[in-house]
Amino acid sequence: MIRDAFADNRLGQFMETNHTIVVFLVGLLAPSALGGDWQEFAVWPTTDDQKAPDVYGNTVVWQQYVEEFGDYDIYVADMNNSDDSLIAVFGDANDQMSPAIFEDLVVWQDFVVWQDGADWDIRMADISDQNEPRTFVVSEVAFNDEQKPAIHGNIVVWQDGAADNFDIYGADVTDPNWPAEFAVAPFEANQQRPAIHRMSVVWTDDFFGDSDIYGADVWRRNKPDDFAVAPVEGDQQNAAISSDVVVWQGNFSGDWDIYAADISDPANPVESAIAAGPGSQTNPDIDGNIVVWQDNRSGNWDIVGYNLTTKRHFQITTHPADQIEPAVSENVVVWQDRRDGNWNIYAVRLGGPEMATCVETIQADVNADCKVDFADLALLASVWLDCHLEPAGVCY
Predict the structure, then answer these.
(1) Which secondary structure element, helix H or strand E, spans residue 213, and what is its range?
(2) pLDDT by residue (tens digit) across 148-162?
(3) Are 219 and 367 contained in the same domain?
């Protein structure tokens, strides 16, 4: 699958990428006080450890270590149904881990024991009929690890250990009984932890010796068009994507910070710093104009948010126990929480000014924050009388 000249070609793509970096000063500010009147709540409290949550709308999925059986299973809950919120549990005598959800489809990695060994495979469940969920095999190759799945629409992606390294593979599950598998990033070194939105897939890539963020348009399944998102110094990891915005954690400044890039023009990503304060900011997620991550600048891990439209941070949790691994869908944020002595999944429904969106574009809004103010004037002044007409003599 790898062409002999692949390394030279990919290096050439990296060198030719016009990579624009824009750092907004607001990204360096500390988060504000607790942002709203929302209430945090446990989704399905238990003494078993719950980890790795994901959310779509009001449906939450996570992996739960069942002490009675000594393994992890996948749990699914509907937060709108307070009387009996648990929809389904997917599990057997082995581990089921790393779930992800889109609409009524849940995917996870499943540890399968074969006659001569064992490995991780990708499974999926359709929960549209909550009384009788249906399960399917997405990818099952003996002695070959498929892990860390993500899903959007009818496409599932995962990291695949088919060779001596991890690659990114995907499958079209329009017909879940016959998934159509395809290669997304079968490159040298490791490609891991994919995320997907519509036809755009992003991942962590070790091709150049450190960790960078790369992506691909998979509209053409037989020939995905890959591109560089963040091939910069230091390590960039744990990418997430919504529409044309990719977020990730990077240690360019010496500790982990949160960065974003607009990839509406994949050949010219526009980068910005979202959270570059003291301490570490890691594990970002994004949906629409809301970014969330875990932040330890206060001495423990809290969940913090950022509105891409208003350019404002807001604190989501302040409990002295650790809150980690956040995920966001619309105004719902879920995370893994230690406040009860063991890990439980907690959630909150955001509201108020923290969820502000832009309803109409204003012509003079230079910095795209949906208002015209001195910040726009400063940007205009910084390029006052700049001229790129050719010939230059016609400028003035």
Answers:
(1) strand 212-217
(2) 999 999 999 999 997
(3) no
